[in-house]
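Can you make up a polypeptide sequence alongside its tokenized fold?
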Amino acid sequence: MRSLLGFVCVVAIIQGLVGFAGRVWFDSQWGFLHRLVDLPTWGYLAVALAAVVVLLVSEAAHKRQEG
């Protein structure tokens, strides 16, 4: 379960950063997120940031559980 969560978080980080870069520097839509939802430019960074937070909290909980 933890590896699946990690994979989803990494994909969300990549999609958020690629979507932001495409909008800001290349004036086009990149990634898969724009096919699902219509996000403003800052929304892509919010998706990436939320995924980073979930990934860090998950890793911290795992280390705390191990001892």
